UniProtKB/TrEMBL annotation:
Pfam families documented for this protein: cREC_REC (PF20274)
UniProt protein name: Cyclic-phosphate processing Receiver domain-containing protein
InterPro entries reported for this sequence: cREC_REC
Organism: Paenibacillus methanolicus
Location of the Cyclic-phosphate processing Receiver domain: 2-84
Length: 101
């Protein structure tokens, strides 16, 4: 089981695998069991966002055990959180914010 940190800019925390874009993150979701997934929203100009990852999770039924939203985009965080709240199975622990430091 691995932990995944989706971000194109921030440094990856210890104990996490870095996904620098939505495609990498989705490939990890498809191929690995994920304990903690921490999502950014903005992943570079013109690039798919963290919401793209959440939409793929919902469509494909690919859920980690726990999700954190470390984005600095309030609207992006709200969109990802609302979609996960509506669709994630009960066993998925959902946090509307970043991991404690």
């Amino acid at each position: 089981m691995i932990n995944v940190y989706l971000d194109d800019f921030r440094p990856c925390p210890a104990g996490f695998v870095l996904a620098k874009n939505a495609e990498e993150c989705i490939l990890l979701l498809e191929g690995e069991q994920i304990g903690i997934l921490s999502l950014d929203f903005d992943l570079g100009w013109g690039q798919p966002t963290g919401l793209h990852v959440v939409q793929a999770m919902v469509e494909k039924g690919l859920y980690p055990q726990e999700v954190f939203l470390h984005t600095s985009s309030p609207s992006g965080k709200m969109q990802m959180y609302q979609l996960l709240l509506r669709h994630a199975p009960e066993h998925v622990r959902l946090h509307n914010g970043p991991m404690a430091g």
